[in-house]
């Protein structure tokens, strides 16, 4: 039972250090009182005594520091993990760290974009790790310099790098940087970086370091994406259950070759599909519009129910992707083709919570899409490029405008303004997707008595709009408080948006309380 012995030993050591720390603190206090008695030394003997008391006090302070660092190191366990947007954590940390660093001539630049996949964090513990890395970087630059934070993501992990332009480390020092009690800094306890690494490992991640003397140091921190850590994805390909990593379609699939397919996305709350009838009506319309036939929608509805139950999902997202099918490459429809059907359900991690509360920044981007955006087609390249351009300026969404400046919608959400007390939005037309959340929000507006003016917004109107907000299946109702560098409505979510959010949540809470779904 080596593991149990380790735990026992760690607990013993923790308790022991805790007691020592209390004694050091008492000792330190006594020495403080003693040095006050000798505040005005009268002769060399007294001066020597003061010197000694001060030195003892310094040593005592250091022992308290080491004990605190040790306890911080030992206590990295029982994490309170929550799906978190790393961008927000970094922003909060830099809010207070950057001004302090600046006084020491250290400039901090962050390129951590919004919209990274959520990671599971114990936020206060993770902040301790991040602060350690920032302090480490700052200490490596006593004459000033630059700290750069950058982040990227792939489907499995989010990678954060903290890069400084400081004095760097020799290879043998870098190699030992994470060893407890190894420090080259005078007065350092040698527990800062080991604690940081332990915290990152406890999050299921990894921390590594690269360094070059007199050039600088780069710490690379990897964290697994929350949806990967969470429940297994439920996946049905052409009606057969397969692990998502093994679900494959042919390279001759027309969805792959021509983008010849459509999709639909539904949200599951408390194990029940939300606004199911509307989503299925849109799915039916999309299929009819592109003339994909032979999909049994009742069977799909049933398969969603079976997936929710057998996957044990409560909060989830359902994706339905349907392409025309597999056939030798030719533009015109092949005869005798069977559609490819992919249904997958994954646990939903609501990363929009803080954004719905505070509001978000969006970026204006040209609408380069085709003229049938009312079809929920898998051709999303123009949406992807617009959203990427927005991400690169730290915005969470791109709002799209036509050549004459008319606003259509956003890259994956519907857009609304509030002008002279009325909600302003485009009338449904082939230039926008008839959003299901948009339809529901307009019903809520009628219920709470806010009039709607179905006219498009123009990009020149945005600055003077009283409010802006977006809607979408995962996003729900989200306030927009900034368009590129321009603040909207004083940079705060407006009252109409707030009333709509309240109304939305009231209906949603009632829906959650309804009996759960049964078999069809
Ligand atoms: N507009 C576009 C272009 C979208 O892609 C989406 C959703 O994906 C929406 C609007 C919002 O639609 P819904 O409310 O049905 O999710």
Descriptive overview:
- The structure is a single chain.
- With 520 residues, the protein is α+β, with helices and mostly antiparallel strands.
- The chain has four domains: 4-74; 82-228, Heat Shock Protein 90 (2-Layer Sandwich), CATH 3.30.565.10; 242-347, 2-Layer Sandwich (D-amino Acid Aminotransferase, Chain A, domain 1), CATH 3.30.470; 358-512, Alpha-Beta Barrel (D-amino Acid Aminotransferase, Chain A, domain 2), CATH 3.20.10.10.
- It is built from 14 helices and 22 strands.
- The chain has helices at residues 2-37, 44-74, 86-103, 123-139, 171-176, 192-202, 226-229, 254-258, 276-289, 297-311, 353-358, 381-392, 436-448, 495-513, and strands at residues 82-84, 106-111, 119-121, 145-153, 157-164, 206-212, 216-224, 234-237, 240-241, 261-269, 272-273, 316-323, 340-347, 360-366, 397-401, 407-410, 414-419, 422-424, 452-453, 467-472, 476-483, 486-487.
- The strands form four sheets. Strands 14, 15, 16, 17, 18, 19, 20, 21 and 22 form a nine-stranded mixed β-sheet that branches. Strands 9-8-13-12-10-11 form a six-stranded antiparallel β-sheet. The chain has a five-stranded mixed β-sheet with strand order 2-4-5-7-6.
- Strand 15 (397-401) and strand 16 form a beta hairpin.
- The two termini are 51 Å apart.
- The model has no long low-confidence stretch (mean pLDDT 91).
- Residues 265, 383, 409, 412-414, 433, 435-438, 471-473 line the site of pyridoxal-5'-phosphate.
